[in-house]
Every structure is written in structure tokens, then in C-alpha cells.
Amino acid sequence: MATTLVTFMRRTVAPALAAGALAGILVACGDGGGGGNGGGDSTTSATQVNVKMTDFRMQLPQTTLKAGEYTFVATNDGHHDHAMEIEGQGTEQKTRTLAPGESANLTITLKDGMYEVFCPVGNHKDLGMKTELTVGGTSTSDGSGY
Prior knowledge:
GO terms for molecular function: metal ion binding. This protein is of the alpha+beta class and 146 residues long.
């Protein structure tokens, strides 16, 4: 009977314990899974820029930035689904589509030049959900009060 118990332990319990330990190691080594399609790592030294998306307006606190790495935190404060896309200087990156109340991060390195920040969902861009972003020079406010 003792050999039967030992055989049972070797065939069932030991592999189950090993599988559980392996699963724990894989979870510990996994990434945090950033949000967005160019999603960022919140531990980088990127400057944070909060973007407020409403129906149908894209608000940035500044329309002129210095070249460098930025994490855009896009928040959908509207009543419709929205996303944020940044296009210019050979780059085109966007967040996932966000339901009302959701946010997503997009970390991107901006070079000197002009960029368009807009909502790529449906015809939202045509409805005015866009703004220009100038990279280079000194930072300025766009006067929106946001």
C-alpha cells in the first residue's frame, strides 16, 4: 500500500506542484501590458501630457512642446467612443478606442516639426476633433484653460 501511495504522489501531485511553480514564475516575469497601440511604460522618464477628449474636441494643455519623449494620457470625457492618434514627422501612432470614461497611455518620442493630434474614430476628425502640435522652440499654452 505504501508503494501505491508513493507512486500516486509521483504521478499526480509532484507534476501539479511543478506546474503551479512554473505558472508563478511566468506570472512574475510577465510584463505589465501597457495600454494603447504604442503603449508606454509608466516607469520611463517621459513627460506626461494629459489629453482631454470630448464630443467633438481634442484638448491639450500645450500646443508647443520641446523635442523629447512624452506619455500622452488620453481620457475620454465624452459620451461617444474616441481614440487619440498622433501623426507627423514620419510617425503615426494611436491609442485603442476608448469608451466614455476610459483612459489610455501613448508614449512617443517627438522630433522637431508639426504633428496633428486627432480622433480617428468615424468622422470625428471632420467634426473638429483635431488640433495641431508644434515640436521645437519653447512650450506654450493653447489658451483653452485646460
